[in-house]
Amino acid sequence: MKLIRTAAALAAVAALLSACGGSSDDVGKEIGVTQPQVHFIHAIPSGPNVDFYDNSKILQPNLAYKAVTNFANIDTGQHNFSYAAVNTTTQLATDTTISNAAKGHEYTVIALPDAGFVPSIAVIDDPFDKGLLSSSARVRAFNASTNAPNLDIYLVAPGTNISTVSPTMAGVAYKNAVPATTQDSIYVSGGTYQLIATLPGSKTPVYKSASFDLVNNADWLVTTLPSGNAATQLVPEKIRVLVAQGGNTQQPALELPDTQ
């Protein structure tokens, strides 16, 4: 009987969240009963298409630069993520940090270059600690731009003068996320925003997006990339922004163009 009452309560919460723009999948993540999920981002300018592996098996084949996959369920426990160029089996980079993938968590695996464009990999563990009745949007930033290795990110109302505003996500270093891996995303109200990036401590934008709508219950990973598609095209501090949208199976990736 207790199980029935619990299931009924969860169904009621799911119905409420759905009415507010959420999803039953979010409910499962929030209470830690859904399988861990992972998605993949290819962030190597001019890199070949790659196959992403999970524990030595291809989980996501043939991803091109700037491609972002939807979330896929994975098992709990140890995961070794890696990637190789399509039609090869030589792993270019491997990450073994996920020793115990947890239910309700979201994981992001990013292929990106190290200094000198040596293949590298990064993994973000997002515990998805959103409150059951929250309709706020979740946001995190990741720096995959070798030509802008440290950034402050501002998520502000369009036209905001940032001279007296603190960064929304400060000190986003290359190959790192803010909030950091294993920490929850930040939460903001749905609305119309503009994204601005500066060098740390500076108020001079190196990137400024057009206005965009960030809806309630959105789940965004904002990833900075070099604006050029090859090492020879990279201009210092010239970046583009790619958004990986969780829970959106129609348009998993969104590129915010620079308006400067």
UniProtKB/TrEMBL annotation:
Keywords: Signal. It holds the Pfam family DUF4397. It comes from the Bacteria. The keyword Membrane does not apply. Residues 37-154 form the DUF4397 domain. Residues 1-24 form the signal peptide. This is DUF4397 domain-containing protein. It comes from Caballeronia zhejiangensis.
